[in-house]
Design brief:
The chain is mainly alpha-helical and about 350 residues long. About 55% of the residues lie in helices and about 5% in strands. Helix 7 packs antiparallel against helix 8 and helix 9 packs across helix 10. It is globular, with a radius of gyration of 22 Å. The N and C termini lie far apart (about 50 Å).
Length: about 350
């Protein structure tokens, strides 16, 4: 147990060196703080796969795969503790999404929190999305001001009330109605708001590790080196299979992340958000290759409107045999299609060796 305070730099160094004391006291210690906070809001305890160690292990595996670098990518004004807990929140929200029977859906406020507002690029992206709502949905001038002031500029209800000459209570009531009737439906329809959080982990490895461990490590203790070796071997084995992994956290130089998009190219959530944050997707580009990702529009109508873009993708893949295209379950999130509806579109892809499809497709 450390009795002196370590700097963020010293803590990160300890993480990379596998210092069990530092990992126990700081990584698992910080995650425990976050877990206690999120448990109060989401009632995590007692639910399958939502216990502290399962969630913390998922986070640890992801960070180790990336040499702990995601913990360095933060503003100097944000402490390592705050940044680490915020990253752990994404793991919790992702796990909750898969716990549908008990939890239901994640709130619009949680979706907004998935935008890291300390990032200028994400702030610009989000502002454009808000402006898009105001530009394309008929509404009164006061309603437009309320949306722009609260969501884009961050004003409080009292400040908005003073600006437009109504009471704070009236602002609150109008904003709630706007959110329920206009904002949330518009985001769901146009911005892939299926609430898949960007930093997702590999659940298969966690299940495998649970079977290997005779007894789970007590809360606050770090897992053994053997645990991480088993996890890494499991991940490597699964990534060798000729199907797209359920969760993709990194790519080889020749691999392309194929995701479902919208024609506007507003990559606001789900796989599109992952593509934007991690794999070079370009805001405003809704079709084709961009960075290490490839966009196939799925939000513009029925299945028949998706087929031409799938055919175009298959032809593109044939023309680029040195690249491997990892196709995600496009159209099966917020777009509302089923696997049985989308998978037949990829029938011609079965004979294309450099196209990898999801299990069952």
């Amino acid at each position: 147990m450390y009795y002196r305070r370590l700097s963020d730099k010293e803590i990160l160094k300890g993480f990379r060196q596998g210092d069990s004391d530092i990992i126990r006291d700081y990584f698992y210690g910080y995650c425990q703080i976050g877990y206690n906070i999120f448990d109060q809001r989401y009632q995590l305890r007692g639910k399958q796969n939502l216990d502290f160690m399962s969630l913390a292990h998922q986070y640890a595996i992801y960070l180790m795969e990336h040499d702990w670098k995601p913990l360095e990518d933060h503003s100097p004004e944000v402490s390592l503790k705050t940044w680490l807990i915020n990253g752990f929140r994404f793991v919790v929200l992702d796990a909750l999404k898969w716990y549908k029977k008990e939890y239901g859906s994640i709130t619009f406020e949680d979706y907004l929190m998935s935008f890291d507002m300390t990032s200028d690029n994400l702030r610009l992206q989000f502002n454009r999305m808000v402006e898009d709502v105001c530009d394309h949905v008929p509404m009164e001038r006061k309603d437009r001001i309320i949306i722009l002031m609260i969501l884009k500029r961050g004003f409080k209800g009292k400040e908005v009330a003073e600006e437009i000459g109504i009471t704070p209570a009236a602002v609150s009531q109008r904003y709630k109605k706007l959110k329920d009737d206009i904002i949330v439906p518009y985001f769901r329809k146009n911005f892939d708001m299926d609430l898949d959080m960007p930093e997702v982990m590999d659940k298969h490895a966690v299940v495998y590790a649970d079977a290997e461990m005779a007894a789970p490590a007590p809360c606050g203790t770090a897992p053994s080196t053997d645990f991480f070796r088993v996890e890494k071997a499991t991940i490597d084995y699964m990534n060798q299979k000729k199907t797209t992994p359920e969760f993709i956290t990194s790519l080889q130089p020749n691999e392309i992340f194929v995701f479902g998009s919208n024609l506007r190219g507003m990559h606001g959530g789900g796989a599109a958000y992952i593509a934007y944050r991690k794999f070079g997707a370009i805001m405003g580009q809704g079709v084709g290759l961009q960075g290490q990702s490839y966009a196939i529009p799925t939000m513009q109508g029925g299945v028949e409107t998706i087929k031409p873009y799938v055919d175009e993708f298959i032809a593109f893949a044939k023309e680029h045999p040195t690249l491997t295209f990892l196709v995600t379950r496009i159209g099966c999130g917020i777009a509302g299609f089923t696997d049985d509806e989308i998978s037949p579109l990829f029938e011609k892809a079965h004979d294309v060796e450099n196209i990898v499809l999801p299990p069952g497709w």
